[in-house]
Amino acid sequence: MASRGKWGxxxxxxxxxxxxxIGLGNIWRFPYITGNNGGALFVLIYIxxxxxxxxxxxLAEFALGRATAKNPVGAFNAIRPGTKWHxxxxxxxxxxxxxxxxxxxxxxxxxGYCLKxxxxxxxxxxxxxxxxxxxxxxxDSWVQILWxxxxxxxxxxxxxxxxxxxxxxxxxxxxxxxxVIMLLLLIRSLTLPGAEKGLQFYLKPDFSKINGRVFLAAMxxxxxxxxxxxxTMLTYGSYLKRKENLVSSxxxxxxxxxxxxxxxxxxxxxxxFSQNMMPDQGPGLVFVILPVIFSxxxxxxxxxxxxxxxxxxxxxxxTISLLEVPVAxxxxxxxxxxxxxxxxxxxxxxxxxxxxxxxxGGVRFxxxxxxxxxxxxxxWDKLWGNIALSIGAFLVAIxxxxxxxxANALDEITNNGVKFRLAKCWxxxxxxxxxxxxLIVLISQFF
Length: 447
Ligand code: PHE
Hints:
By secondary structure, this protein is mainly alpha-helical. Helices cover 77% and strands 0% of the residues. The chain has one domain (10-444): Orthogonal Bundle (Hydantoin permease). It contains 18 helices and no strands. Helix 1 (10-21) crosses helix 8 and helix 5 (86-118) packs across helix 7 (141-161).
């Protein structure tokens, strides 16, 4: 899009917003977080979080963006000039850069895996070998830095030209293709011997496992997956024409995004249990199990290659939206040219991404941080992907609920004749449910 262009159509906007939402969050993060948090119970809480927290906040961000036609910092400034509220926007800008750092490392893995598929490395592979291949891949520092650089350069190139509109055109074809391949993977996975155990893990909640950590994980995952809490959807809404329907757009984006995540779980867990593998393996989960599924399919090499390529494109439409937030800020507020803004932020992100890239075994310190006993990437993922986004979403709810006021937001949502039947529920959610729930979940982490 141009520095301040407009989306061509409603479908274009929904696809762009869905392009931001759908990405590694659905196919890499959702399964691994589900596996780490005990399965079905987490999934249940996640779905509730999408409906009760995600949808209302998304609508609030769309409305804020369209009403002000500004980047996150500018939006808060426009509505309450001279107050500290624009720090909420700043938090979003910083969070965007930080998520971009570790996200690009994982996106680099998808590129590396494209090549591995083509090279036939996964032919007839069994689980032990798949785990070894993955481990040696992520502990090779130079390879990690290389793929990270390639992926970030792609993102920078596209954002610097302001041609993400062009990419949406490809995404329009490629995302349905990804969906089709996922359906084929689904069939393969569900028909593996022992798949039922995986379905049970994924669908049958064990309420004895409930604890505060599961709630934070589910809430964070809902915000992460829907690209909320850092002003992405606000920024995307700022390129939106007056006449579009914000309510149905939000519903579409949330529905498509959840569909892909849930589908990913249906692929990963049956296969995982059929191979007698543990679900709580952390960030490497899908990169170990997917090659095993491909190896058990006719034409697996090509399926694998196509899958990782399409996943890389899905990741690219997300990293574009991550980079777009700080870039829109620098263009609008600091009057920087787009190219300069993009390259500068991209380079900073690259440097800050190095610890994550080296945390898979490349450098011992980052692989096993002292005291925390965690790797740097997982730490960053939790800190920025869960906590910072939750804080951002909390501030958006407070701002829209009490500072801008829901009446003004509702006016923005409905002033083009859109009927919003659930307006009362939305107000209730933004003013009370979202702030209270987010606060309780965040505070409960300290006990
Ligand atoms: N929602 C994206 C995904 O699921 C990640 C993202 C988070 C993008 C926050 C923008 C903002 O992959």
